[in-house]
């Protein structure tokens, strides 16, 4: 029943009733999703359909453009020549099309060369939509001759757009046989082809006097210009034996050809003559595409330009990577004391490094800052500059006090690093009278420290946590002086905040005023460290990461290698590596990192026995000795430094190779050690040697560009020599090495958890250093390490 009939038959019904009836009666829902009515819904779908159609057309266009681009590229980068026997469905260029038509014409002498693939019989429609007249080639050519050079090209372009259309005209007008065309038309056609810069040309072989033959010549590089290239072509292309021309035509033609100067052509026979072009192998493309293709040379030029620009950008990027350590900003442009700038200039520092530029303003503003920057990029000066400015500012505002306060406290994990930083601070303070820096590190006499603190100016202290705590706990008066602290700096902050130093750090921070500025610097700042940084930093601190998101923590110019081999091969592998490197690199400078001080001592003794040019630095050596060796290693070349972790933050210039024997404590330690080479944007190499059971560490550094180093041949003679030299080393040194090894690996949680395996590995190590049996442990030590009842562990009575 229809709605209207209900309405008519029930006039008393209310509007609501009618609406209800409407729903009940109607064919399907009257409202559509989104509250649209039927017409809105319909219009929406029509619109969508139109958009889809447009999108498809656009896609088609893009596909074509991509194809044209790939063709151009393939022409720029010559690849394998396509197989001519295979059908080719690529778009046909105007030149190819002209040639194909002419070929067909010559092969068949056909009246009508049109076939379906050639497109419409008429020339293209005019703008008004009407179909134009067939093209009069003769007229067109005549017109062309009367125009000047610039308009010729435009005409040629215009002509090219017609070429595929005039297939029929062409075939008719170009006669039923090319010879009927007459020399003038042939000339005209040749000229048109030339103007079009076609790659195939009608050629008349002037050298062939008797039988002048018509042919096409293929010239991949452009126009046929006579001479050598022509003869090459004529030999390349087989001769055509049909369609002879009469001599009068020939003379006329010669004249025309001569008039055209360099475009003098020869008759050479073509593949077309042999009927190879009979089969149309290329699919015809729409006219609008052919128009695009006419701009081929411009596109080629654009792509060439693009390629060269890109390669230039690539070079520039490599250069900037090399020079990225230095920024364009100079120290004298910054807001630092002119005395400091003078000292910097005298030390040879004019431009800032990137990290110095990135951090200075934030540090000078008095904010808490946490900085991550690669090793060897100038972090020390980055924090020393604000430190000096803080002292200057604080000194200028304060009255003379009975106990002069310490304004800046710099903490570092190692003595060597502390000494290095205080030396660098002294360089910058050269022209600041009355401002002094002192270092408080272990291994020196406590009383001497105290005397210096009392007698010398000391607004800046560089200390290791252990020695500073000694001073605080011994009530040497330093606690009172620290109450005036303005700035706390942590260099290698990740190391200072990890478990080894945590307790000391907590105690120290408790003795410092809360109202202070804190700066944390390191080359590595893992997430855990960032979390516990609140121990030192204010909540609203600034985090500056000069590496950027996902940036590598190691330098790209440092090549990194690793090798996995059993313990008993380690010493020989290191020996081989050192021998090879020292013989290949003229000004070598190598650092070999060992896990512990006693291991360092053992390796040093061995390589000294083996007549390598080695030095040692580790915590078991007196501080004065270490300072002397450090200085020597800084200043010399052709030296090998065997060291423990005490050298991990040291600035030794021009180190060529860093070797790490055994598993590093963590990823940070690996990166810090590796950072001794490739400093200030220089090149370097790193080598990590692991035992098979230590391989799991590679997972921790899997994002770094480490390459596996193939095993070099281990000579038996070297092995024998190592054995002999090892025998000469005192057993106590080897035993200490064993004990320290056990202690070190026991402290690495991942290894120390499985005591039985640990002891097994320790025994392998004992054998590798020439111990007949693993030395016994003191009961107390064994208990402390949880090794008392582990099989394979001997306890001293
Ligand atoms: N502005 C500068 N211009 C030239 N050289 C500089 C500049 N700043 C620092 N250097 C030099 O760069 C080298 C590395 O500096 P520094 O030891 O401070 O690096 P770092 O980033 O602290 O390294 P690490 O993380 O290993 O401790 C030093 O030899 C230093 O003299």
Automatic annotation (TrEMBL):
Composition bias, Acidic residues: 246-255
UniProt keyword Hydrolase, yes or no: yes
SMART domains: DEXDc, HELICc
Alphabetized CDD domains for the sequence: SF2_C_DEAD
Motif (Q motif): 329-357
Keyword annotations: ATP-binding, Helicase, Hydrolase, Nucleotide-binding, RNA-binding
Pfam family, one: Helicase_C
Keyword Transcription regulation: no
Protein name (record): ATP-dependent RNA helicase
Lineage: Eukaryota, Viridiplantae, Streptophyta, Embryophyta, Tracheophyta
